[in-house]
Write a structure and sequence with these properties.
Layout (H helix, E strand, L loop, with lengths): L20 H9 L11 H8 L4 E5 L2 E4 H17 L7 E4 L5 H13 L2 E4 L6 H11 L3 E5 L1 E2 L2 E2 H11 L5 E5 L9 E2 L22 E6 L9 E5 H14 L7 E4 L6 H5 L2 H7 L3 E4 L5 H11 L3 E4 L4 H11 L8 E4 L6 H11 L2 E7 L5 E3 L6 H6 L3 E2 L5 E5 L11 E7 L14 H4 L6 E9 L5 E6 L3 E4 L2 E4 H8 L5 E11 L3 E10 L5 H10 L10 E4 L13 H7 L1
Parallel strand pairs: 1-13, 3-4, 3-5, 5-8, 8-9, 12-13, 12-14, 14-15, 15-16, 26-27
Antiparallel strand pairs: 1-2, 6-7, 10-11, 16-17, 17-18, 19-20, 20-21, 21-22, 23-24, 25-26
Length: 546
Amino acid sequence: MDAPPSREPGGAPADWPGWPAEDVQRYRAAGYWRDELLGDIPAHQAAERPHAPALVDGERRWTYAELDRDIQALSGGLHRLGFRPGDRVILQLPNKAEFVLLWFALHRLGAVPVHAMPGHRRSEIGHLARLTEAAGYVVPDRHARFDHRELAAEIRENHRTLQRVIVVGDPGGHPDFIPFDTLYGDGTGPAAPPSPRDPGDLALLLLSGGTTGTPKLIPRTHHDYAYNARTAAGICRLGPDTVYLAVLPLAFNFTLACPGILGTLMSGGTVVIAPNPDPLTAFGLIEREGVTHTAVNPPLVPYWLSEHRAHRPDLATLQLLQVGAARLPDDLARRIGPELGCRLQQVFGMAEGLLNLTSPDDPEEIVCTTQGRPISPADEIRVTGPDGRPVPDGHTGELLTRGPYTLRGYYRSPGHAATHFTDDGFYRTGDLVRRLPTGHLKVVGRVKDQINRGGEKIDATEVEDHLLAHPGVLQAAVVAVPDPALGERSVAFLVSDGAPTVRGIAAFLRDRGLAAYKAPDRVRLIDRMPLTAVGKIDKNALRALV
């Protein structure tokens, strides 16, 4: 049976390890951490530029004054339902304005949004409800041909702390589910009382980007998350004239705060929501809304380039295309500027904290061949070999980090302390990188994403980069499968508009100068790549296909 929900703002101190007191003092003294609450961002902008455009979703538009008004009304509605500061609320919505409205309304109330992806189902949502003792759950009625109301009914039945389900759309045959629109009331109800929150309190819970097991939860505070978004916005040079297109899921850390939605709103710009990542949808919104900045992941880049060649949309307003969430192959990176006519910014980050960006002032070669450098002067970086000792610049090693916006431990998961953190508080990212003398990082793979073929070690990421340079390949993933003779063999899964063969792929890789043993032993053509709930290629699902 679930334990009763905690009413302590931010949860009990044992829920997650914070930063040591000396680091807290150092970050505050340096001005990295300010006394700001995430829920106050729209109100601050409404006071300065009430009539400026803030949010666009299809034909629906909000000025900053209207956005702040609706957030305040929703906060009052949540309070009338019984939500209180510190309550955890699972937020599982697709790309709709209601995500933004409810996210800020929960913060205004002092509640804690728990991010879930639209693709999550009973296993993941049940895990989140159990781990957080969630008091509420927000879902769409239907999305991508799935009825989230039935899932919500099952989750509530099995988790007694979860008393309230809010549905964006039609509650269907669930009379006790609360329609989102009723939260506004008639406009005459009392507002929620001011939240007695501290900027060091738990602000939100993000999902880890791991591809195995149930997701770990990442505690972010107002202090560190506001710093994350504000600093990234400064590097990207966002301002009141910025129009940011949210293409990837809104619940992604990348979309929300790198600099994303938060950085744009903190800068007084406009956020435009794309209902799906289809390039034609995005191109239409860029033209219609005068989008200046947007962000995509590497699997989308070939489709954007292909659709751009085919339809020649007007992307004259687009200044900066961020690409992150996975490594962007150098060949694709070099095509973005000449073909799309905008500046590329590579992004390498993690919901756990550390964010790396290339700068608009970086040389083109740096932009196209590295994944940026840490955004904060207080980010501490170690690159270590298998023995745990630092390796020289230019050598490959595992990336370890700590800093003013990188967690010191997962939420209610003390068992991960020994495997994911060093004794002195460095987070083990699991990423293999090479650091240049400039401080830029080049991501070369994952610690566990290697194939041992008869003693020859093959870096899957390296081979994937070469495969993506093939003119007929749109997406590529290389996985290991057991082999009685060699221990492991490699299988390349390809999404292609042609019919490449093992022999043809081997010849292509040989012409690119790749060692023969790195060519895949098998090639499998598939219609689409399976993705995890957080949008990464699901290599476990690919292995299951072999």
